Amino acid sequence: MICISVTPTSRRLAAADLFNAARSGDLIELCLDGLKKTPDVGALLKAVDKPVLVSCRRREDGGRWEGSEEDRIQLLRNAIVAGPDWVELELDAARRIPPFGRTQRVVSCTSLDRPLNQPAIDEVLERCCEAKADVVKFTWKTETLDDAWPLLAAATQNRRLPVVGKGIGPSGLAFSLLARRYGAPWIYAALERGMETFEGECTVGQLNEEYGWCDIDSRTRFVGIVGRDDAENASSRILNAAFREYGVPVRCLPLLPGRPGRLRRMLDVLKIRALLVGPDHQDTMRHLADDVHHTVRDDGYFDMLTEKDGRWKARASLFEAIYAAGAKERGDERWVQGRTVLVIGTTPLSLSMAARFSGMNAAVSLAAPSDNSAAQAARTIGVRHVPWSAIHGTVLDTVILADGSVACGTGRSELNPSLLRERMTVIDLMKYPAESAIAEEARIRGCHYISPSLVFAFQLQTQFRFLTGRSIPLDAFQKGLLC
Fold it and tell me: First CA to last CA across the chain, in angstroms?
């Protein structure tokens, strides 16, 4: 089941929010803590034909209640008398409010500063039994998969009482998808942006349209997407749309790993056999690779990890995609060989691009606003360094922009668009997979602009073909980009 939380600020809007949530959810949480005036809970319950869970959270539990604790307890007592299907009570409140009527009790424990460990979880569960809970709810911060792990264990293990959970933070979505996969009683979502109970809470639209949560069950396998930037989010949307189009029981799982030593074991337990790795997470994921595919060169750049027989192998798909996109744009399969190439930036991606193009018989130079950093990087990978002040006087066929920190402009440390000339090839990876500010300048000046969206399409096709042996349908690209 999915529980959609509504957080109205006025009684007039509360009925409308409940009605809208009831069209998409199985259980509706009516949060009373944001209402400015005392609500008529009985009248609100009549607005929907779905089960309703009533809550009223204090600020220390992540809510917005501004009144006294006595007034809050009385509001919850009155709400229970109105006959909701469920009521959420903290442990201390549950002791003061006895069971009443048909209303079932969700006894909650919230820890906004750190996750609970297993002994603390067991203690809370024992106290919840004493408080006559029907369901136990845990809420805590889930910055990484490490933080979500004990929450997932609490929500999916066989216990005397059913357990639900809510993860707050970047890994909250991963927890919700995993909890759905492993049979938690329900997962939480906001009705829409601006109505979250906690900042960053996923919406029901995101779960439906981007992840197809209703199709996730015990047969579902996950492909880990390491990172939460634009490229990783777009990858998840498009790949999920493709998996759904083919009816394959696979979904993408956004992952932010924590301590390296635990990751291998967690991936094994979750039966995750493939990871797509964003460029910002290569250093943290490199330890997982036992072997490297021939697509991973001396520069060490990789963007995929796959597991077989307990061993993880690193692969690279981006450069194949860039080469294919360049050949399509230039109409020449040998568009790199013998060219003079300038790579802008000193990021790991910039250095990998310089090393790859150098290995393709191109004359490669490296430049960046910091001449010292660029010179040192150029020596490391064995290419020529061009001082930042001299790049406009360099004869070039191709410019590769792979450092998002370099701004486009006329300032001393900025990239002046006058560098770009007619018929020059421009590879734009500064905001990958989106276009950077240089895109319009490149087109106006008559450059062969290799769009990052074209590179991205080739890269996803390469990754999806490796994972499934199939091509991504055009409809999946369109659906994924529209989400």
Answer: 23
State how far Cα 350 lies from the chain centre.
24
Quote the tokens at residue 61.
Answer: 């539990």
The sheet with strand 27-31 has its strands ordered as 163-168, 135-141, 104-111, 86-90, 52-55, 27-31, 2-6, 187-190
To the nearest 5 percent, what fractions of the chain are helix, strand and coil? Answer: 40, 20, 40
Peptide bond into 433 cis (omega under 30): yes
CA atoms of 86 and 106, how far apart (whole Å): 7
Which of 352, 374, 354 lies closest to 364, judged by CA? 354
Rounded to 5 degrees, φ, ψ at 213 are -60, -30
At 227-284, the pLDDT tens digits run 877 788 888 999 999 999 999 999 999 999 888 788 999 999 999 999 999 877 888 8
- Chain-centroid distance of CA 141 in Å reads 15
The residue with tokens 């060989």 is 337
Task: Pull the structure tokens for residue 314.
Answer: 């690193």
DSSP bridge pairs for 305: 275, 314
Paired tokens of 366: 């490296």
Domains delineated in the chain: 2-206 (3.20.20.70), 225-316+458-482 (3.40.50.10860), 331-450 (3.40.50.720)
d(CA 19, CA 476): 31
Hey, which residues does 3 pair with through a beta bridge?
A: 27, 188
Only one residue has tokens 């006087």, namely: 393
DSSP type of residue 138:
E
- Residues 6 or more apart whose CB falls under 8 angstroms from that of 390 comprise none
- pLDDT, tens digit, for every residue of 144-197? 999 899 888 887 777 778 899 999 988 999 999 999 999 889 999 998 888 888
Cβ proximity of 26 and 3 under 8 Å = yes
Q: C-alpha distances in angstroms, 372 versus 366, 375, 378, 401, 412? A: 12, 5, 10, 19, 15
Residue spans of alpha helices (H) in 331-407 = 348-358, 371-381
Q: How crowded is residue 216: how many other Cβ atoms within 10 Å of its Cβ?
A: 21
Q: What are the residue ranges of helices labelled H in 11-167?
A: 11-22, 41-45, 69-81, 91-96, 118-130, 145-156
Q: Kindly state the tokens that stand for 440.
A: 């319009």
- What token pair was written down for 395? 């004869």
